[in-house]
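[audit] Reproducing an earlier prediction to check determinism. Same input, same settings, fresh worker. If the tokens differ from the archived copy the diff job will pick it up downstream; this log only records the rerun itself.
[audit] input (154 residues):
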Amino acid sequence: MYTNEAEHSFSSMSPEHLSEYAELYSAAFSAPPWNEPWTPEAAGKRIAAMMSASSFSGVALYSAGSLKGFIFGQTEYHHSGAEFQIQEFCVAPGDQGRGYGSALLGALRRKLREEGISGCIYLITSRTDTTSGWYACHGFHEAEGFIVMNDTQE
């Protein structure tokens, strides 16, 4: 069952709701498909650090007064204009599959247009049907010519 966008409200993410975001984040990323051992405390530190950046932008979705999900990231400025990197995006585990993710992505796109950010929106995500497949259905594609590299610092 998909929600009607008129039935919920969107707000810009703000630090006074950090504990609420941290609870939802830890629940979402501790569940499949990620199964990561997040605690609300660790999630709060991660989210607070990202929110402290001057280029932070995020949208939270509420329905019937309850937080259902959020999406946030950073604006990056290049010689050709501004782009946006989605850093985190989650919907409460019990509310997934109801259209909240699509509604959040749409709200973020509108917010970025209003802020004059017309460059690409990009993210790094796992290569599974439930993640990359979802983004592909929403207009995203793999960026050719780019790879993600990391150093495990032994």
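[audit] rerun output stored. Observation attached for the diff report: The two ends are 47 Å apart (CA to CA).
[audit] end
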